[in-house]
TrEMBL record:
One matching Pfam family: SGL
Protein name, entry field: AkeP protein
Boundaries of every SMP-30/Gluconolactonase/LRE-like region domain copy: 109-384
Alphabetized SUPFAM superfamilies for the sequence: Calcium-dependent phosphotriesterase
Entry superkingdom: Eukaryota
InterPro entries: 6-blade_b-propeller_TolB-like, Oryzine_lactonohydrolase, SGL
Residue ranges of coiled coil: none
Length: 400
């Protein structure tokens, strides 16, 4: 009897919250979805007292109005929060979020989907195994058919991988560096786990500590050189430059700085599917040495276009038309990826946001449960989005 009353109260609270939110389309599960917009007067002008930090989710806000509190409680139980009607079409009614592994370590990064073997490669970054600040010469491989997790080591060992892209049978990785080496760009053969370093300097100057990378359709690299690994003392070297975005020609390995962020920090990076635009996350709100969060610091996603040659019309390694695409609703975007359809997926806080690449509107958020499960990076599979992050979560968001 008591359990039945609890269930009735829970259903009543859900119904109350849903009645105060925009109605979701037919065919979408109301327990997994919420549609939030300022067309709702209750959310456009919140009664009473309310407040939250920019590092918190909207549903974590402190509110005095019981109706808004009920809305937030409902949102905290959902997997998907729509801010724009197009988000329903992007995700689809059959989408679910499933947690596959619970790894009790610090942060997981650098996911790569290997289609030939149906495996997910990723790393534990900055966690146990290397002292207080971390340091690892191993990586993980998850068999997606059996959900079996295995540790692997490359030959030679690869320390502190931070970013990964899979292309033409190889894992293309960047590292923070390790006890005896600075950061570098390398390839790993997943059939043999042989690692080949292909770039470790900019005209004989070391890098700070690489954070992430992406590749364009021509096979060129875009690398973010970040303060993050240096700030965690993952290698014993100094920071020779400000945080910088580099272009590396995939054939000649000729390198060029595209931009640097003297007041912020480089992090996630993504190339549009047509190769014409570049998206860069500035996560300067997370400061290092000393490590602290600065609410006045940047939490922004920037967009750029590539210049073209007047003579040939070919794309040049020059960025133009810099524009602030969006600021993360909560926290900041760590991992950033562009889908085949061009939507930008940014992981940060307790969500993966989907951003319109033209207007910068945030279409909606994919939630991975909160409560310590925080997405840090992501990769697209066949019909899934694979997410790794804090709290040891490895999750997949299945869509139609």
């Amino acid at each position: 009897m008591y359990a039945s009353k609890v269930a009735q109260f829970a259903l009543a609270g859900l119904a109350a919250a849903q009645s105060q939110l925009d109605a979701i389309p037919a065919g979408f599960n109301a327990s997994r979805w919420a549609w939030v917009s300022n067309e709702n007067p209750l959310l456009a002008a919140i009664p009473g007292e309310f407040n939250r930090s920019g590092f918190q989710a909207p549903s974590a806000a402190t509110v005095s109005d019981s109706r808004v509190a009920a809305i937030n409680e409902h949102i905290n139980q959902t997997n998907f929060v729509a801010y724009d009607s197009r988000f329903f079409e992007i995700i689809g009614p059959d989408a679910t979020v499933e947690q596959l592994q619970v790894l009790p370590f610090q942060i997981h990064e650098a996911p790569c989907y290997i289609p030939e073997t149906s495996q997910l490669y990723f790393v534990e970054w900055g966690g146990p195994g290397g002292g207080e600040n971390g340091g690892h010469d191993y990586q993980y491989v998850l068999d997606l058919k059996t959900n079996t997790l295995t540790k692997v080591r490359t030959n030679p060992p690869t320390w502190n991988v931070h970013g990964c892209v899979y292309s033409k049978g190889k894992l293309h990785v960047v590292t923070d560096g390790g006890p005896h080496e600075t950061g570098y760009l390398a390839t790993i053969d997943p059939s043999t786990w042989e690692r080949k370093t292909i770039l470790n300097n900019n005209n004989e100057q070391p890098f700070i500590s690489f954070n992430d990378l992406d590749m364009d359709p021509e096979g060129n690299y875009y690398l973010t050189d970040s303060l993050s690994g240096w700030g965690r003392n993952l290698h014993p070297y100094g920071a020779p430059t400000p945080p910088t975005v580099y272009f590396v020609n995939g054939t000649t390995l000729r390198i060029k700085a595209l931009m640097y962020l003297p007041d912020g920090n480089t992090n996630g990076i993504a190339v549009s599917p047509d190769g014409r635009s570049l998206y860069v996350a500035d996560t300067g709100a997370s400061q290092v040495k000393p490590s602290r969060r600065n609410e006045q610091g940047p939490r922004d996603l920037w967009a750029f276009d590539f210049a073209t040659s007047r003579a040939t019309g070919q794309k040049l390694p020059l960025l133009t038309n810099r524009r602030l695409l969006t600021r993360a609703i909560e926290y900041f975007y760590d991992g950033v990826r562009a889908s085949r359809s061009g939507w930008i997926f940014g992981a940060g806080g307790e969500v993966v946001d989907v951003v319109d690449p033209e207007s910068g509107w945030i279409m909606g958020s994919i939630r991975v449960g909160g409560g310590g499960n925080e997405p840090v990076n992501l990769v697209f599979g066949e019909n899934e989005l694979w997410i790794v992050g804090k709290g040891g979560c490895v999750a997949r968001q299945k869509h139609s």
